[in-house]
Amino acid sequence: MNKNIVYTIGYTLFQKDNVIDIESLFQTLQQYNIQYLIDVRSVPFSKQYPQCNADNMKIAGRNFGIQYMNMPEIGAKATSSQDVFSKASDIFFEDIFPIAKSNRPEKTELSSSEEIVDFRKFRCDEYFTDGLKRIKKAYDKGYTLCMMCSESKPLDCHRYFLISKALEERYSDWLEVKHIIKDDCDELCSVSNSDLNELLKKAVLRKDIFKNILTPNIFGESPLNNYYGNTQEEKINDFCDRYWNLMHGWKKHNTINNNEAYD
Fold first, then answer.
1. Which comes out higher in pLDDT, residue 51 or 210?
2. Least confident range of 61-65, 72-76, 151-155, 217-221
3. Residue 258 — pLDDT band, cuts 50, 70, 90?
4. CA 31 remoteness from chain centre
């Protein structure tokens, strides 16, 4: 069965010097026969790249026959009133706290008792899942969509870890996510969630603190016993997902004014 494809893209993939080549971005969307560009930034504005602000993207889209729209409900920003936060130690079980530096928006130290966004909970949030249903409705009508955020590498972006995983969890029988990137030769191509899962695994497991994660202790107990899954492979995937969450989920009590920090 041929599955429908929803694409993702990051506009900094088309960065030239200090500007974004909007024309190349939309020409790429045309090559993939995309009809709607869905901006998944929580706030569709950028001080660094104002040409990527919502109003400018709408105008550019019309010129290329591609409709632009923002869907903040599937953005990465959460409010303190949403039940999408967990203690850091409940997300990742290893004794590596405090963490001095990460990819979280605050760039500040994280202790085990602090609450951060839990992306597993986020994928079940009603506001977020309403956004997923809107995407399904678009495909029911025969449209092809591309979700856009800022990061050129989907592995660093919530469009991979939050949205595309949720879409395939719900609609994998008929829908597949493809992420538009550039290969080592600077040529455009696309990769799947499975491809990114493997890249994530390699990135996490080569870190010095995790080199022994597959080695049983003196009692023959595996460090992976705390993680979810019926097989070692599933437990490793859970381990890597939780570590990514730890490095990207922002703290509950902080308010970030920098729009780019969320997306």
1. 51
2. 217-221
3. very low
4. 23
Contact 177, 164 (CB under 8 A): yes
The answer for residues whose C-beta is within 8 angstroms of residue 119's C-beta and 6 or more apart is 158, 161, 162, 241, 245, 248, 249
Q: What is the DSSP string of 139-196?
A: HHTT--EEEEES-SSGGGSHIIIIIIHHHHHHHTTTEEEEEEEE-TTS-EEEEEHHHH
Strand 188-192 and strand 175-182: the pairing is: antiparallel
Average pLDDT over residues 46-71: 97
Length of the chain measured in residues:
263
Does residue 251 contact residue 104 with C-beta atoms inside 8 Å? yes
Q: What is the pTM of this model?
A: 0.90
Weakest mean pLDDT among 18-22, 100-104, 112-116, 242-246: 100-104
Q: Are 135 and 145 in contact (CB under 8 A)?
A: yes
- Please provide residue 10's backbone torsions phi and psi, each rounded to the nearest 5 degrees: -115, 130
CB contact burial 187-212 (16+ within 10 A = b; e otherwise)? eeebbebeebbeebbeebeeeeebee
Residue 38: other Cβ atoms inside 10 A = 25
